[in-house]
Each structure stands twice: as structure tokens, then as C-alpha cells.
Amino acid sequence: MDCDKIGNLIYNLRKEKAMTQKQLADLMNISDKAISKWERGLGCPDVSLLPELSQILGVNIEEILSGKIELNETIGGNMKKLNFYVCPQCNNLMTATGDAHISCCGKRLEALVAAKAEDNHLLNIEPVENELYVASSHEMKKDHYISFVAYVTGDRVLIVKQYPEWNMQFRFHKLGHGKLYFHCTNHGLFYQLI
């Protein structure tokens, strides 16, 4: 740990929040001398204080410990670069249009990598007027099912959440060319071109 880098980050984050050392110290029930010591690089926060400091300053503990915040490159919100994250514990679904540090159930999640759908995972897609009718014969049991389907174009994403024992069929309003992503709880993320 580099106390100088950590102190500099704490100083900059505190200033962004328009807080004095005393105000930050009062929120944490410590002395303002401790905050001053950290910001001058003469020491680092105790591990027991990191969760509270992280919450007050609005950054992850990892960023505090590294002494820097990694900013994403501006990509203009192109949905074709959408990343999907699924918690293996609770099946919570999260998305991001750029690099992100996402965690759920106490564990850090990695972006899923989509594979091109093969015969056993292909969805049936039929155009019906101005909609796409999507269906699948994929089993929908509690331990093996498709948890979501997402229709992704350059500027939009439509997500339909699926649950075990549901019939895998629904309609999307046709938006043009894009990809249909879907997540099998046992085999991962797949895609089909539309």
C-alpha cells in the first residue's frame, strides 16, 4: 500500500464532496488529526474503517487501497458493447455499457462472454407483423433454464426475464438488426443474429 497515493485520493474525494477534514472525521467518529495524517501520507486508514470510508466517499475499497480511480473511456452509449453480469448465487442480472466493477452476494462478478448459439441452444425466432415471436424448447427446470433474453441493437436493449417452469415464449417489437442474447443457467451466455 502506498500511503501517499491513498492519502492523495482521500484528499481529492473529500474535496469533491465539499467536506472538511473535521466533517469527514465526525461522520466516522474519529479525530480530524487522523484524516490529516492520511492525507499527508503519514499513515493509512485502519482496515476496520475502510467500509465506512468507502461508503462516505462513494468509491470501492479496492480503489481506496490502490490509491487511484480507473475511469472508463467514453464510448457514446453504444448498446452493442453491452456487458451482462449474472450472480451465480441469486441469479441477479446486471448490465453495463463499459468496464465496470460489479459485485453481488459478496463476490465480484466478471462480464459474461457470449458464444454463438449452436443447435441445442438456438431460439426459434419468427417475424409476426412488426414483432418477433421468440420461443424455445429448452428445458425450464429449477436447476437448468434460460434466465433472460435480451434484444440488443445499436441504441436499445429490451430484456425479458425468464423463470423456471415458465413457457419460453414471448414477443419483442421489431427494432431492426441486432443480436438476441440469452443466458442458460448451466451453459452460460449465447447470442443469435437477428
From TrEMBL:
Q: Which Gene3D superfamilies match?
A: lambda repressor-like DNA-binding domains (1.10.260.40), SOR catalytic domain (2.60.40.730)
What are the residue boundaries of the HTH cro/C1-type domain, all occurrences included?
Answer: 10-64
> Do you know which InterPro entries this protein is assigned to?
Cro/C1-type_HTH, Desulfoferrodoxin_Fe-bd_dom_sf, Lambda_DNA-bd_dom_sf
Q: Which SUPFAM superfamilies match?
A: lambda repressor-like DNA-binding domains, Superoxide reductase-like
MF annotations from Gene Ontology: DNA binding; iron ion binding; oxidoreductase activity
Query: What keyword terms does UniProt attach to this protein?
Result: DNA-binding
Name the UniProt record assigns to this protein: XRE family transcriptional regulator
- Biological source species: Anaerosporomusa subterranea
